[in-house]
């Protein structure tokens, strides 16, 4: 975790924002389209901006969302940072420097950013759909189990409630750091998943009397 604070400070500096150590930074790297949940996020921004948090967004997409989030940034210049561009370096800085990573997708066949974020000790906030549901498990009380915050209903109300849970959880720094250390050890590499596929293949061919060797 030695680099977390440095990445966080650099990230905020790049966005020209200030956020105290007790105020969580929530990052998003995404296409600004309906699929990625930018509709329910937009309708919820007034409530979200009332919370003690900083939200940083990076990406491009539908022109209507460019207009909406540019206008919102002007309304909340001290709490909302929006960069309408593709920048791979900045994407990784957001994943590394944020305290939480938000993915409120309507649907998500796989999803990679939640796994990138886990490796940086950044806790995901996701909707339970597709690959997000497969890789993120809801944190229990105290954060002893699970690796993120999840909501099921695709609605602004559910999104706001889950972000609030994450913000409240951030108040316990010891619990946050324990979760960070645990999720950074998770293995979402091909080494892990390929081994599982191999087990399936072995069982399948074994039932048919076929020998499978390495």
Detailed description of the structure:
This protein has helices spanning 4-15, 38-48, 63-75, 88-97, 113-119, 130-135, 156-169, 173-183, 190-207, and strands spanning 25-29, 54-58, 80-83, 100-103, 123-127, 149-151. The chain is an alpha/beta fold and 214 residues long. A six-stranded parallel sheet has the order 3-2-1-4-5-6, with helices on both faces. Helix 6 (130-135) links the parallel strand 5 and strand 6 (149-151). The chain is globular and about 65 Å long. The relative contact order is 0.14.
List its salient traits.
9 helices; globular; 6-stranded parallel β-sheet; alpha/beta; 12% strand; 214 residues
Short characterization:
This protein has helices at residues 4-15, 38-48, 63-75, 88-97, 113-119, 130-135, 156-169, 173-183, 190-207; strands at 25-29, 54-58, 80-83, 100-103, 123-127, 149-151. By secondary structure, the protein is of the alpha/beta class.
Give the helices and strands, then pairings.
Elements (H helix, E strand, L loop, with lengths): L3 H12 L9 E5 L8 H11 L5 E5 L4 H13 L4 E4 L4 H10 L2 E4 L9 H7 L3 E5 L2 H6 L13 E3 L4 H14 L3 H11 L6 H18 L7
Parallel strand pairs: 1-2, 1-4, 2-3, 4-5, 5-6
Helix pairs in contact: 1-4, 2-3, 2-7
- The secondary-structure class comes to alpha/beta
Mean pLDDT: 94
Number of strands: 6
Taking Cα atoms only, what radius of gyration do you get, to the nearest Å?
19 Å
* Helical content class: 40-55%
The unreliable regions are none
């Amino acid at each position: 975790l030695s680099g977390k604070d440095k990445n966080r400070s650099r990230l905020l500096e790049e966005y020209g924002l200030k956020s105290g150590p007790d105020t969580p930074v929530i990052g998003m790297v995404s296409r600004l389209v309906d699929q990625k949940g930018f509709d329910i996020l937009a309708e919820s921004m007034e409530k979200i901006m009332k919370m003690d948090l900083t939200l940083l967004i990076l990406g491009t997409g539908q022109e209507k969302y460019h207009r909406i989030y540019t206008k919102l940034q002007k309304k909340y210049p001290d709490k909302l940072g929006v960069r309408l561009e593709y920048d791979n370096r900045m994407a990784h800085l957001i994943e590394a420097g944020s305290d939480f990573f938000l993915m409120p997708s309507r649907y998500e066949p796989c999803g990679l950013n939640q796994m990138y974020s886990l490796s940086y000790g950044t806790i995901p906030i996701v909707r339970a759909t597709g690959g997000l549901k497969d890789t993120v498990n809801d944190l229990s009380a105290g954060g002893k189990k699970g690796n993120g915050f999840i909501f099921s209903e695709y609605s602004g109300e559910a999104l706001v409630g889950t972000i609030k849970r994450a913000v409240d959880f951030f108040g316990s720094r010891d619990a946050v750091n324990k979760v960070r250390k645990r999720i950074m050890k998770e293995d979402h590499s091909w080494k892990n998943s390929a081994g599982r596929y191999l087990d399936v293949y072995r069982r399948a061919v074994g039932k048919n009397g076929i020998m499978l060797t390495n």
